[in-house]
Design brief:
The protein has 122 residues and is an alpha/beta fold. The chain is built from 5 helices and 5 strands. It has a single domain, classed as Response regulator (Rossmann fold, 3-Layer(aba) Sandwich). Helix 2 packs parallel to helix 3.
Length: 122
């Protein structure tokens, strides 16, 4: 079962995504970029869903540190964003290695399809 790391500072969003993905994916959660880094240092996920706006270490800071880890280049990252951040994500996709972005709110079936597609392409 593919392992998905969901990084978001909103507990309700973490719960929602876990409920949507459970059964098809193993879901691990982190409420901050700092916690996510500790998780990936122990075990690499198959894909990361990453919020941009978080207190402390934001999504871009996490991604910069994450990409320095051995094996991180093989892990696709999908950014979670509110619509107003979409242009920031598009400009960062090539530079940061982001394979897709999903705007909040999102369609549950679309989320699963995008995760499947990203894992298959990597």
């Amino acid at each position: 079962m593919p392992k998905v790391l969901v990084v978001d500072d909103e507990r309700d969003m973490l719960r929602l995504v876990k409920n949507i993905l459970s059964g098809e994916f193993e879901v691990i959660e982190a409420e901050s970029g700092e916690k996510a880094l500790k998780l990936v240092e122990k075990e690499m996920p198959d894909i990361i869903l990453l919020d941009i706006m978080m207190p402390g270490m934001d999504g871009w800071d996490f991604l910069e540190k994450f990409r320095r880890l051995e094996g991180a280049e093989r892990v696709p990252v999908i950014m979670f964003t509110i619509r107003s951040e979409a242009s920031e994500v598009l400009s960062g996709m090539a530079v940061e290695g982001v394979v897709d972005y999903i705007t909040k709110p999102f369609d549950p079936e679309d989320l699963k399809m995008r995760i499947r597609r990203a894992i298959k392409n990597e």
